[in-house]
Amino acid sequence: MPQALRIGLLGCGTVGTGVAKILSEKAQELTRITGRPLTLCRVVVRDVTKLRDSVIPVNLITGDPTTLFSEPLDVVVEVAGGIGPIRDIVIKCLESGRDLITANKALLAEWGSEIFEQARKHGRAIGFEAAVAGGIPIIRAISEGMVANRITAILGILNGTSNYILTRMADDGLTYSEALVEAQKMGYAEANPSLDVDGTDAAHKLAILAHLAFGVQPPLESIPRRGINNLDAVDICFASELGYTIKLLAESWNRNGKLAMHVSPVLLKKQAPMAQVRGAYNAVALVGDAVEDTLYYGKGAGMLPTASSIVANLVDIASSRERMVQQSRLLWPKGKNNGPPILPDTDLKSRFYLRLLVPDRPGIMAEVAGILATFKISIASVIQHESTSSPPNRVQMVIMTHEAFASDFRLAVAEIDRRAFAIFPVTHYPVAD
Amino acid sequence: MPQALRIGLLGCGTVGTGVAKILSEKAQELTRITGRPLTLCRVVVRDVTKLRDSVIPVNLITGDPTTLFSEPLDVVVEVAGGIGPIRDIVIKCLESGRDLITANKALLAEWGSEIFEQARKHGRAIGFEAAVAGGIPIIRAISEGMVANRITAILGILNGTSNYILTRMADDGLTYSEALVEAQKMGYAEANPSLDVDGTDAAHKLAILAHLAFGVQPPLESIPRRGINNLDAVDICFASELGYTIKLLAESWNRNGKLAMHVSPVLLKKQAPMAQVRGAYNAVALVGDAVEDTLYYGKGAGMLPTASSIVANLVDIASSRERMVQQSRLLWPKGKNNGPPILPDTDLKSRFYLRLLVPDRPGIMAEVAGILATFKISIASVIQHESTSSPPNRVQMVIMTHEAFASDFRLAVAEIDRRAFAIFPVTHYPVAD
Predict the structure, then answer these.
(1) What is the pLDDT at residue A391?
(2) How far is CA B379 from the centre of its chain?
């Protein structure tokens, strides 16, 4: 019998339990495929008194993380989340000769170069398929399947919680708060839902994909990001009237040797493939110079989809460690940003949606149109319904523009906001082609 | 400098040229990723006098396939297509210690166990990412990404030529013959277009995916298959009127421990994700017990998309040979069908579309409805337009049924075909839920 791959688990919430479940239920098949047993040897948890699923052997549970680098283990699976203390444990595990599998996008996006430096120093492999788009093997698709391609664009729905909320708001008329509570109950939201809905989680994931695809190591603050936490249902309704759906998109593309990237709610044509991505599903579109357009779709979170990616990485380490080590050697080189420079987001061109609440009196449309024209922004379509309210009569004015520079558009918005008729600041979102 | 991976190319048509192009243009990047150069050392062609792209060094070209197993090479890339003589060359390459990469679905589907037996015997690896769905890394997705899953269903648009023809017929009103000629001009059709349009190519690819997913080794004749070569444009129009698109689908799913599989034109709701797959694109939906629904989408054929998958396999062999050998060891075991038994297609349940050309006189609808009722088949909807032609007035009667067993449906069709009013045999297709 060949030697077992000895696994330590750091964290045992939903995903950790899923990993233990798959390792136990599919033990025979996984041994057949890798040629060696995958054996869970240690489970480190924060609260040892908490009741666990029966799939976790009680004698493996401990509250002491030092067991992960003092006991004989081959690989540590980190599914605890968070950064501070976890980063230190993970680095000690690499130092003491363990390979690492992590689902922690924040850790990679913010501390990738420190962690991979340790891996390189100690000849260790790091697998992180589960860190982006749960059940979709997107890391494998970029780093192996598309290895013969220069990637030119990434477009993704990467946050399942946001997409679930947007879907429930658009399809079933729920309010933002109702949909958020529901998403949390369904177990889709991360530990801290604010990172999901403010775009940070999607930006972390975009940073990881952009590193794999373009070599960049963008600090989080260099990725312009807006979440869905300030999105009003009224904009979903107007978008729908115009034939669009609003999705939280994470995008990055190479434009003449510079890299555009941002996370934002974006209006997408209803028939676009990304507009069809509903509920807790994720999707990633990749464009490569050889393969052209590709799209990957699947569950973005949840116990078994995420655990499925972690176990796939365990199989990688059990059967193809050499390759994983080689991959880890090339990733997140310290102090080197091998990618193209990042375009300031003001240089991006896009169509735009804007909405203003204005008094229902003559001349305002002319004034708004005039300001847009001043900044060379051309109007594509307008919606303004008849006012049905009693005085003070105020109406929503919705405008879709033709393509314009974000810098010009912002100046125009600032100018509109300064005018006397502007009751609230203009609401605006980019529109995808 | 580590040792180069020495590559021999068997065949140098569109795809072979694409491989040489990528190896040459991306030499530096590929060396960085694998840690060793990927070097083209020999190119075997049928016609040495033919003018080749300048990316193929003239001194490598030969008409003698024995060079592939007599000269020092590490891996042979087979992109010649066909079976007879190619099978023998490929087996000799494996015997003489070369790893193999092949894009040849017919070879794998029909001779998989012979070829993999040689690979096992000689400790060789076989890569075949390019054999199914060109640019989509679907082999990798099933055998690596979804390794922790029991797969329960596969649904694919696997033949780009057929899908191109169907798209042009549905979207632009081309006839079947016009669209076929166009597809051939675009370079989408295989050497022999009849294998594309009669469903054989899709059945070969389905056999490969079903082997990976379910362990079965179905002989080609056990896969019920119909192509698009007898599809009439009028059925595309009626389907559209009912809210459906017709696609050539390859399907296989586990039903209570038995495997259903078939290739057929199928009516799909227009808003279904598969219905959005246009032109020469392919798509594969996989359902796994852990990850649930996933979908992969990309170019199914063409020079660079297919070459991109071949080069990805070259990188696998250069950097992860051990794992590829282990995978090859488990595939197509000789004389063993490890999968579930295949359901006879008469046991499949489905909704059905049927169309009859009938005389425009009273009583026929009653007669048809009566026959369907006899076989417990319930009608969901009917289209019959007013006749506008001069005598003999004949009209198209189109019926969509509720779910029924294929066996019952066929008996009903046979009974309708026997009646005096039946001018032509009934045209019928299954309808997806």
Answers:
(1) 64
(2) 32
Question: B291, A299: Cβ pair inside 8 Å?
Answer: yes
What's the pLDDT at A337? 73
Identify the band that residue A360 occupies on the pLDDT scale cut at 50, 70 and 90.
Answer: confident
> What count of residues does chain B have?
433
Set out the domains of chain B in order of their start, with CATH numbers.
5-134+304-330 (3.40.50.720), 138-299 (3.30.360.10), 345-431 (3.30.70.260)
A297, B294: Cβ pair inside 8 Å? yes
Q: A308 — phi, psi (to 5°)?
A: -60, -40
CB contact under 8 A, A304 and B291: yes
CB-based burial of residue A28 (10 Å sphere; 0-12 exposed, 13-18 middle, 19+ buried)?
A: exposed
Q: What is the per-residue pLDDT for B336?
A: 72
Distance, CA of B90 to CA of B96 (rounded, Å): 10
Residue B428 three-state SS: strand
ipTM comes to 0.92
Run of H or E including A73: none
**For residue B56, what pLDDT is reported?**
94
Q: Which residue among A140, A316, A326 sits closest to B35, beta carbon to beta carbon?
A: A326
Q: How far apart are CA A265 and CA A247, in angstroms?
A: 5
Q: Whole-angstrom Cα distance, residue A247 to residue A365? A: 28
The sign of the dihedral angle between the CA atoms of B96, B101, B107, B111 is positive
Chain A, nearest residue to B297 by Cα: A295
Q: Tell me the count of A-B CB pairs closer than 8 A.
A: 176
Cβ(B20)–Cβ(B8) under 8 Å? no
Examine the pLDDT at B338 and tell me if it is beyond 80.
no
B364-390 per-position pLDDT tens digit: 999 999 999 999 999 999 999 887 766
DSSP string covering B267-280: EEETTSGGGG--TT
Cα of A14 vs its chain's centroid, Å: 19
- Which of B5, B19, B25, B147 to mutate to probe the A interface, most A CBs <10 Å? B147
Residue B184 pLDDT class (50, 70, 90 cuts):
confident
pTM score above 0.90: yes
Provide the total of helices (H) and of strands (E) in chain B, helices listed first: 14, 16
- Closest-CA residue in chain A for B30? A148
Angstroms from B209 CA to nearest CA on chain A: 17
Residue partners of B318: CB distance under 8 A and separation at least 6 = B5, B34, B35, B36, B38
Neighbouring residues of B207: CB distance < 8 A, sequence distance ≥ 6: B109, B217, B218, B220, B223
DSSP per residue over B281-311, as a string?
Answer: EEEEEEEETTTEEEEEEEE-SSHHHHHHHHH
Whether the Cβ atoms of residue A357 and residue A424 lie closer than 8 Å to each other: yes
Q: How confident is the model over B32-69, as pLDDT tens digits?
A: 999 999 999 999 999 999 989 999 999 999 999 999 99
Does residue B190 have a pLDDT over 70? no
- Cα Rg, chain B, nearest whole Å: 24
CA-wise closest residue to B235 among B100, B356, B83, B413: B356
Cα separation, A231 vs B168, whole angstroms: 40
**Does the pLDDT of residue A189 top 90, yes or no?**
no
The DSSP result for B364-389, as a single string, is HHHHHHHHHHHTT--EEEEEEPPP-S
Question: For B146-160, b where at least 16 C-beta lie within 10 A, e where not — what string?
Answer: bbbbebbbbbbbbbb
Bigger pLDDT: B235 or B191? B235
Predicted confidence at residue A321, as pLDDT, reads: 87
Q: Mean per-residue pLDDT for B170-180? A: 93
**3-state helix vs strand vs coil in chain A, percent to 5:** 40, 25, 35
Active-site annotation holder among B205, B247, B258, B299: B205
Asked if the Cβ–Cβ distance from A147 to B312 is below 8 Å, we say: yes
Coil, helix or strand for B336? coil
